[in-house]
């Protein structure tokens, strides 16, 4: 408040002549950032909780014997054949958690602006313009939004019972860190939101385009021939492809190549595997992997 003073936002407030901006966030910044950090982890935690009860009874790591892999491969081929086309629920869980992550980023930006009193939307842009077009009389947007020295309004009752106002100088030392923290958050939100939108576009392409799904599967299963990948994509729906893409990073390239080849052979009329493998029981749950596409 005030004009022609030695420090921005410093001066005597005169009713009708000076503008006032109240700072109500100062003592709550730590709690706000802590709650935000916990909430932003929510989509990942939800994804793990949703898929925790849908896992295979074993993993595909540290396979030292060929017999171990043959048992697990036969079980997995049987499982994929029995549940072919029935993994849509798992796929939609993943897509919804991706949408939740985008929605949380947008809501964080809005909530941060409300928390700072409407001074966050243009914070990064104002800082960028200040760094490139600053003059000796230009006030830094960091100082304007997060003043280190300002005027506080204290009210007290006099002996006569009237309310008097007193305007002492107040130091706000934590704002030396707050301005940099929220500037980082501004660009961090923008970057994450942009990357999330690109990822959403990428997922839309995969969902709607079979050649894109074949290329994505080829990235995880490099040893599988092109014609075998093409037959797998044509014989299985989107949810089966999604399961295999998430399972592939946990397996050796040779093993995933054998698995895809066997799946194609089984689906196209090879040996029947309707009876469950002798050494492994029938699965009661569907596939799960913590990896993302």
Number of domains: 1
What is the residue-averaged pLDDT? 77
Q: What low-confidence regions span 5 or more consecutive residues with pLDDT below 50?
A: 271-293
The shape, in one word, is elongated
Protein name: Innexin
Region (Disordered): 270-293
Function: Structural component of the gap junctions.
GO molecular function: gap junction channel activity
Summarize the structure.
The chain is mostly helical. Helix content is 56%, strand content 5%.
Attribute tags:
293 residues, mainly alpha, two-stranded antiparallel ribbon, two-stranded antiparallel sheet, elongated, disordered C terminus, Innexin
Summarize the structure in words.
The C terminus is likely disordered. This protein is 56% helix and 5% strand. The protein is built from 11 helices and 4 strands, in the order ααααααββββααααα. Helix 2 runs antiparallel to helix 4, helix 3 crosses helix 11 and helix 8 packs across helix 9.
